[in-house]
């Protein structure tokens, strides 16, 4: 029985369990299968990276206070973060990896850096 490559249709020569005619076809096939989720994940990771850079720039001393307008002007997107930390007293911090922020009264935010 002759097997055909699922990417290009060429004859597969070699081991019985071989599925593609070449590494190039295997890569092209797998990239096309994962394309939608990869694009979505790429966009989310880019957004997280941008948020992280903004917090890192605005918080060089590991703890500071900034206005929401300053975060907005830098392009910060409050919809993207990697974790939420709630203290014993119920205070909620939002983190992008080790850079975090805490909403304060009057449209201000406390920026913090979690130590490893």
Low-confidence stretches: none
Helix/sheet category? alpha+beta
Number of helices: 3
In angstroms, what separates the terminal alpha carbons?
Answer: 58 Å
The biggest beta sheet is recorded as: 5 strands, antiparallel
Strand order of the largest sheet: 1-5-4-3-2
The overall strand count is 5
Briefly characterize the structure:
By secondary structure, the protein is of the alpha+beta class. Helices cover 36% and strands 22% of the residues.
Describe this structure in words.
With 116 residues, this protein is α+β, with helices and mostly antiparallel strands. It has a domain at 36-113. Helix content is 36%, strand content 22%. It contains 3 helices and 5 strands; from the N terminus they run H-H-E-H-E-E-E-E. It starts with 22 loop residues before the first helix and ends with a strand.
Write the layout of secondary structure elements.
Blueprint: H1 23-33, H2 35-58, E1 63-67, H3 68-74, E2 83-86, E3 92-96, E4 99-103, E5 108-113
Antiparallel strand pairs: 1-5, 2-3, 3-4, 4-5
